[in-house]
Amino acid sequence: MSSFSEHQQYTSGELPDGALGPDPIAALEAWLADAEAAGLPDPNAMVVGTVEADGRPSSRTVLWKGVDAGRLAFFTNRESAKGLAIAHEARVSLLFPWYGLHRQVRVEGVAAFAPDELSDAYWATRPRGSQVGAWASEQSRPIGSRDELDARETAAEERFAGIETLPRPPHWGGYLVTPASIEFWQGRASRLHDRQLYERAGDGWRVTRLQP
Fold first, then answer.
1. Is residue 142 assigned to a domain?
2. Would residue 197 count as lying in a domain?
3. Which of 25, 32, 69, 131 has the fewest CB neighbours in a 10 Å radius?
């Protein structure tokens, strides 16, 4: 078995009791702001975990695109592997890995389609090239070669020539994840890390400190 002996002490922060406040969504947004201020690459990147129809776990990185009424939003091709998995099992996990700050946040919740008006509004902000790509790619499906994919892109460009903002494809849209739990992790020295878990409790949240 390969062995990795490098050990890094985490001494960049701490998470005292009560420091995050009563609202984990607000705390999550504050930690995102810290990641942005620190110049971390793609600070809104999150790993979405799903369960496939045959029970296999699967994960991939997407971009968090904001909060709507306490729900976390992301957008994708709903016919992709992740979209098909969510159609099978709506429970998902989200992981924000802010390694540069010795932090991570784990979210578990339930995903549902975002309203069309929210998907339309975000679609309109996407660069035109990304809109063309969404029409050109049948995400997650096999393709014979890169040349074939490039040809599909060219065909989409020709189809929408002269149109600045393309219509949103019927298979493309947003998901809103309603969190059931949110865990904040702050690295500490000697692997005695800080972990604070928020769990739904009626209209509020129950906060528990977890041992590392």
1. no
2. yes
3. 69
Is 191 annotated in the active site? Answer: yes
Q: State how far the alpha carbon of 135 is from the alpha carbons of 131, 171, 172, 186, in Å.
A: 7, 9, 9, 41
List pLDDT tens digits, range 135-151.
999 999 999 999 999 99
- Residue tagged active-site, from 141, 191, 206, 209: 191
Q: In this structure, are residues 74 and 175 in contact, taking their beta carbons and an 8 Å threshold?
A: yes
How many helices (H) and strands (E) are present in the chain, helices listed first? Answer: 5, 9
Q: Residues for the chain: how many in total?
A: 212
Q: Which of 1, 168, 17, 26 has its CA nearest to residue 105?
A: 26
Domain that holds residue 74: 24-122+170-210
* Domain count within the chain: 1
pLDDT in tens, 63-118: 999 999 999 999 999 999 999 999 999 999 999 999 999 999 999 999 999 999 99
